[in-house]
Amino acid sequence: MEVSNKYITIKTQIERAPKETDFELKTAAITLSIEPGSNDAIDAFGVAKVVVSGNPEFQKDELVVGSISWGEYKLVKGGDRFRKLDPMGFPLSYHAGMLGYSGLAAYSGFFEICKPRKGEKVFVSGASGSVGNLVGQFAKLLGCYLVGSVGNNEKVAILKKKLGFDDAFNYKEEPDYKAALKRYFPDGIDIYFDNVGGEMLEAAVANMNLLGRVAACGAIAEYTDATKRAAPSMLDVVYKRIKIQGFLISDHMNLYADFISMASEHLLNGKIQPLEDISNGVESIPSAFIELFQGDNIGKKIVRIAED
Amino acid sequence: MEVSNKYITIKTQIERAPKETDFELKTAAITLSIEPGSNDAIDAFGVAKVVVSGNPEFQKDELVVGSISWGEYKLVKGGDRFRKLDPMGFPLSYHAGMLGYSGLAAYSGFFEICKPRKGEKVFVSGASGSVGNLVGQFAKLLGCYLVGSVGNNEKVAILKKKLGFDDAFNYKEEPDYKAALKRYFPDGIDIYFDNVGGEMLEAAVANMNLLGRVAACGAIAEYTDATKRAAPSMLDVVYKRIKIQGFLISDHMNLYADFISMASEHLLNGKIQPLEDISNGVESIPSAFIELFQGDNIGKKIVRIAED
Q1: Angstroms from B242 CA to nearest CA on chain A
Q2: Confidence (pLDDT) at A271
Q3: pLDDT of B35 strictly over 50
Q4: Are the CB atoms for A278 and A93 separated by under 8 Å?
Q5: Which of A136, A289, B178, B289 is deepest in the core (most CB within 10 A)?
Q6: pLDDT category of residue A76 using cuts at 50, 70 and 90
Q7: Which range, A12-26, B25-39, B67-81, B180-194, has the best average confidence (pLDDT)?
Q8: B239, A232: Cβ pair inside 8 Å?
Q9: Predicted TM-score of the model (pTM)
Q10: First CA to last CA across chain B, in angstroms?
């Protein structure tokens, strides 16, 4: 079986922030045989449907999640990196985002790394992102006081009106992050879920309470500019006994079943709101990817390659 | 009962590094009645002998440990901050240092915060200090690879010859800490016990392995100069899932009995070596204190006010 496959490749080595011109759309015939050939497409987490299979564990038309590519079709050897997907009545996009790795990152980072308690004061940066918005929603479900930082006022409004944040602010309008956090947290911060690194981390540590916890999930401020590194006061870290911990979901796959059970229940009863930002077609992948670095997306950025 | 008491006071507010002229030696008659008067002496952890007591739980000539003062005598109300001391045959100085809070800091920070395993690669800064030298000795007892950083070559020799460190270096002779640690840890650092903060922390994080742990015990580089703050890469923290955790012994008093049992056993069987730096007399307290900031002491700095 041969199909024409559109896919995205990297044209040049990407230095710091990606640009559209770093990528190239290619079209190539691809033979869907049992043995995969090699191609130069880029891997990404997603949901796919089996078109043809030589593996008896996977049948035609079954849905799977796992490492697919930035393209319409992918040839897979073996198939051990995929698991079958029961969509449980949810749109497939949920399974690529809030019920996928973004959701697991929010769940494991918040519950395992931060060990939150009801009533604690929680600060989330990048709070309208795929992980941040869910951390916030988990914090509210637990009964925490919650403030988020984002990069524009539309996002501020969504956090407060749609997602139940107690407060939110646009960091681009705050000349002094430390003073801003002092204002939003007059009683200090117990938990900081950090998606940005840089000066916001420094300001959060300065405003942190005794035994505060920082889950280091991302450092977008540092991806594109190493000079924006954070220099939190280590005296604060020692005397306030602060824990700063990086994590990746690969260490927390054991929590997946608990997470899916909790998140799907609250999606059904309406206590968790989906927040998705969907583009269409392979052609839109590079711009969708670049948006992540510019902070243009609101919620989980999804590219729909084909209809559900 | 009235005695003449020599004690040390603070003359001026101390800005950053203390100087001898910040302190003053005073002599005053002190009436050792049951009700304490107030004085302006400075509190410090130490071992003392009861001279007179109105508390039936404490008898004359009993030894106690707790918050004594920078002076020859102290009037204590109640006495609940003291516990009786059984010296177990050890010199009293041990109980003010390696069997006291310094030892507990080393024990709790290393075992509870770092959770070390045999064969792991351990880096200790301030490695000849009261806490650092014991962390190193615990690490060797467990079978770790161990390197320490110190501020002069005499200390390097002591760590390697007396305390069994696998290697040690004088940070003042290293223009590039990151390169130095790369040389001493070609396979990376699993555990960093941080007594100094600043650039050494940044370099240790850069050389850290996956799932590395940093116990933040002190930040001497930052006490006296806030511009020397560390700016570790948060991308390293996230991708290598590094934990940086501050701690104080007050959170770990529950470990005291285990610690004393372990440390006293190894002092007796010679597997832990005492490392003490003893001055004599109340007059020597300010200079002893200042030495801590200059890194002049080797091992636990003790001031002996009276003979055992």
Answers
A1: 5
A2: 96
A3: no
A4: yes
A5: A136
A6: confident
A7: B180-194
A8: no
A9: 0.87
A10: 22
Which token pair is A208? Answer: 């942190």
DSSP single-letter state for residue B206: H
* Residues paired with residue B45 on neighbouring β-strands, in sequence order: B67
Quick: pLDDT tens for A197-233.
Answer: 999 999 999 999 999 999 999 888 777 777 778 789 9
Alpha carbon distances (Å) from A305 to A24, A36, A61, A70, A73: 16, 21, 16, 9, 10
Query: How many Cβ atoms are within 10 Å of B286's Cβ, its own excluded?
Result: 21
Q: Does B217 touch chain A (CB under 8 A)?
A: yes
pLDDT band at A31 (very low <50, low <70, confident <90, very high): low
Alpha carbon distance B68, B81 (integer Å): 10
CA distance B42 to B9: 6
Query: What is the helix, strand, coil percentage profile of chain B, to 5?
Result: 35, 25, 40
- The answer to whether the beta carbons of residues A209 and A114 sit under 8 Å apart is no
Mean pLDDT, chain A, whole residue set: 90
- CA-to-CA distance for B299 and A57, rounded, in angstroms? 64
Other CB atoms closer than 10 Å to residue B115's CB: what's the count?
12
The DSSP element (H or E) to which B138 belongs, if any, is: helix B132-142
Q: Which residue in the set B239, B241, B244 is minimally distant from A237, CB to CB?
A: B244
From B197, B198, B233, residue closest to A229, measured CB to CB: B233
B285 touches chain A (CB under 8 A): no
Cβ distance of B219 and A238 shorter than 8 Å: yes
Give the residue among A36, A22, A27, A37 at the shortest CA–CA distance from A5.
A27
Strands (E), B133-217: 145-150, 167-170, 189-194, 208-216
User: What distance in Å separates the CA atoms of residue B307 and residue A67, rounded to the nearest whole number?
Assistant: 72
Angle between helix B177-184 and helix B198-206 axes, rounded to 10 deg: 50
User: What is d(CA A78, CA A74) in angstroms, rounded to the nearest whole number?
Assistant: 12
Give the list of residues 6+ apart from residue B300 with CB closer than 8 angstroms, or none. Answer: B93, B96, B97, B98, B102, B129, B130, B275, B276, B277
Q: Which two tokens stand for residue B204?
A: 């240790």
**Which of these, B42, B37, B43, B45, lies nearest to B23 by C-alpha position?**
B42
Sign of CA dihedral A241, A242, A246, A252: positive
For residues B218 and A238, is the Cβ–Cβ distance under 8 A?
yes
